[in-house]
Amino acid sequence: xxxxxxxxxxxxxxxxxxxxxxxxxxxxxxxxxxxxxxxxxxxxxxxxxxxxxxxxxxxxxxxxxxxxxxxxxxxxxxxxxxxxxxxxxxxxxxxxxxxxxxxxxxxxxxxxxxxxxxxxxxxxxxxxxxxxxxxxxxxxxxxxxxxxxxxxxxxxxxxxxxxxxxxxxxxxxxxxxxxxxxxxxxxxxxxxxxxxxxxxxxxxxxxxxxxxxxxxx
Length: 217
What we know:
With 217 residues, the chain is an all-alpha fold.
């Protein structure tokens, strides 16, 4: 069969070192292909999750930014049936937001990503609940509302702010963000403008870009 000129063939598979049922291809075939090895990027996964699931993925984005190594816990040397990968984290987004009893959600997530990552996530969920209670105070008084000391809370807060940002409250939230550490200020703005490009036109984004112009060079 002769393919049309606009057809390209792309194949994907695991590495031999992954021990994922890989059959070695003969050298003549390998020589006719162009080989590329791809890695996992947490920030890209977070952007993808935000685009696909919106607010439903907010807590997972915050958690991934806080615990980046947990995006993939696969170890070929260990015979584990359930490990954390970008694929199984997506399953967890669906499990977490499904109308299930909390014990069923916890069991399903542990079955998808493993007991360790699941336990850390549910611990982080306690921080997320605290942040939900803090947001009204920030919107009311961004100058006097305290900034959490715990790092986990600050990650959760920056993602919560990014999901709340709009043109009307940009001044209020920006006022609060400039009081936070630079890394959380940048994280909140980066996620916010990807969700709502209209924020690029605000005076607050202009101020932010001047403060952190190094990241735009």
